[in-house]
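Appendix C reproduces, verbatim, an entry submitted by the partner laboratory led by Prof. M.T., so that reviewers can inspect both the input and the predicted structure.
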Amino acid sequence: MPQDDDRPVTIYTVAAHAGVSIATVSRVLQGSTPASPMTRRKVLRAVEELDYVPLRSSRPVEVPRHQTHGLVLPGLVGPYYSELLSGFEATAAQYGQSVVVQLAGGPVPLEESLRGLLQRIDGVVIANDTVDDAVVRTISRTTPTVLLARTPVEGCDAVLAENERSAAELTSHLVEHGRRHLVFVGDAADSHDVGQRYDGFVAALRRRRLLEAAPPIRVRLEEDSAPEVVDTVLSSTEPVDALLCANDELAVSVMALLARRGVRVPEDLAVTGFDDIMTSRYVQPGLTTAQQPTRAIGRWAAIRLHERIEGRTEDVEPLVIPTRIVLRGSCGCPWDGPSLAQPPRAADA
C-alpha cells in the first residue's frame, strides 16, 4: 500500500520495502541486466504496494511535445482490455499525459489510421499482433514504442505477462486430479500470449508422458465461441475430461453452457481459465485459473513508454510480469465460495 504520510516515494523507499539495494531496483526497472525471478517479484511487488512511478527527465526540453500517449488495441470487448486501459490511463495521468486509443478492425485501414495517430502523440504502445513487425520497426525509428503482449521486436521495449509456466502448472494440476484426456481451448496462432499458454500445456503433458493429447479447439477467446467449444466436446468420439481454456471469459461461458447441457463441472469435465477476472470468483463452482495482474501490465506499459519518451533509447530486456495459479472448484479442488475479506491483489502476482 502507498505510504500513509506525505513523504514522496523514491527509489530508496522501494529498495527498503523490497529488502534489496537501490542498484537492484534500478536494474529490475530498467531491465539493463537480468534479475532472478524472486528478486524481480520482490521489486515489482514493492513498486505496486507503494504506488511508485519512476520519474526521469533526460530528454531536451526544446523537443516539441503533444503530452499524449498512444495505445493501439485489437478491441475493447471483455474485462481484460478495460483493466489494461484503466492501468495505462491512470499511470499516464500521473505523468501529465492524455491517452489516445486506436482500435484495430475499424472502417479505416489500421496503417492509415496509425499515420494520423503518430502525428498527435509522443509515443505509442502496440498491443498484441495488431501491427506487423515490419511496420513496428518503421514506427520505432521515429516514435518511442513499447510492445505489449506480443513477441519483442528489436528497438522497442516490451511488457509481457508470464504465460508458459502458469499454463504448465494448471495442466499438471489437472493431471494430478486424475485427468488424462485434456484439451486446450484457444488458437495458438491468434496471439503471443495464447501461443505461450499452449506451449506450456504441451510441455506439461510431455513431462507427464501424455503425448496423445487431442488437437486444440481453435476458437476466438470470447463469449460467442462457447457453443462451438461445447458442441465440439460433446460430439467428440474421443473422451475429454478436462479443458484448459486460454482465458476466463471463454471458460466461464463454457461452464455456463455445459451446465445447461447437463454436464457437471468438475465431476464430468474439469475446466480452467487464464486471467482471473472478477466473475471467476463468483461462478459456481469457482473457476481455477492463472491470475495475471492486468491493470499492472497497463501501468508498466505506460511507465516504459514514458521512459522511452524521456530519452532512454538503449535496448533493454523485456519486462515479464509474474502470474500465479489460483485454485478453486472447477478443477476438482474443494471450494467454499469467494473470500471477500482478502481479494486477489495485483501486487501479489
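The chain has a mean pLDDT of 85. Additional entries are available on request from the coordinating office.
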